[in-house]
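pasting input
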Amino acid sequence: MELILYIILLAFLFESMDSMAGMGFGTALSPLLFLLGYTPLQVVPAILISEAITGVIDTVFDHEFRNVRYSFYPLNDATKLALIMAFFGCLSILISIVLVHFAIKFPNFLIKTYVAFLVIFMGILGFIRLKLREQCNFHLKRLIGFSFLAGFNKGIGGGGYGPVITMGQILSGVYEKSATAIVSFAESIVSFVGIITFFLISFAGVKLDFILLPSLFTGGFFASLSAPYFVRVLPNKIWKFFIPFYTINIGIFSLLKIIGLI
Amino acid sequence: MSIEWEIGKEAQELDEKTIFERMKIQGRSVKKIVAAFWFYILIMIIFYFVL
């Protein structure tokens, strides 16, 4: 087992942003790890396992620090919403992982390119989100559509889940701090299904590499403890602008890497 | 699902308080943080033997 310091620091940074702004760990960290030379089969399963565990911790502390309140008996709105998003996310992640890594074998290049464009698009959507803040009507079908798309993105490249469902919730009238907290809960459930799927395809001969897992988990763990507290204490105005900005930049860097300019 | 969201009401109420009020941590939360650290150690031990 190896702990890589810069991976721990990156995981801490991006998991912190993920908890505070509902995006960053998968969407931004995956292409960054690709930029550092790691392959999708090293990155995606490790991110899924790390997110599944740290998502549970994050959920417990978001509840504890009252960023959102969950109740299973009786089910409250926050728990229902998380379960709806998780259900559609799970369904699509099962389909997409098998399509990409087993039934239809896409080259790594294609996955990297898709993730890069996705990151840029999500960054732009982040800015659009700021413009659309006043329109907070409830649209369940739209939320379900976002959940399905988000799950597919996660399965295909290890990212993209947070930006889509965070924005979907906010456009549906959920309070911003609570929306990012609910993402962590749903993300954790979806990641568990992703892990199971990856283990199933590994039995069919796909070789998984967990070199990044201890480092990603360590950074993610400390972030999942501290971030809910900072969400409680700090206003999130800074994150609203900063996250789309850095997401677009990472996407552009990823594209530059793919076309060989870096 | 109700259109009148109950989601985020407590967070909104908390946001209306001062930053010093929001910074206060209850004893129960400290216990949960300690429990989380034990959980981290357990997971790392599992990784050590499994990976």
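fyi Chain A touches chain B through 37 residues (CB under 8 Å).
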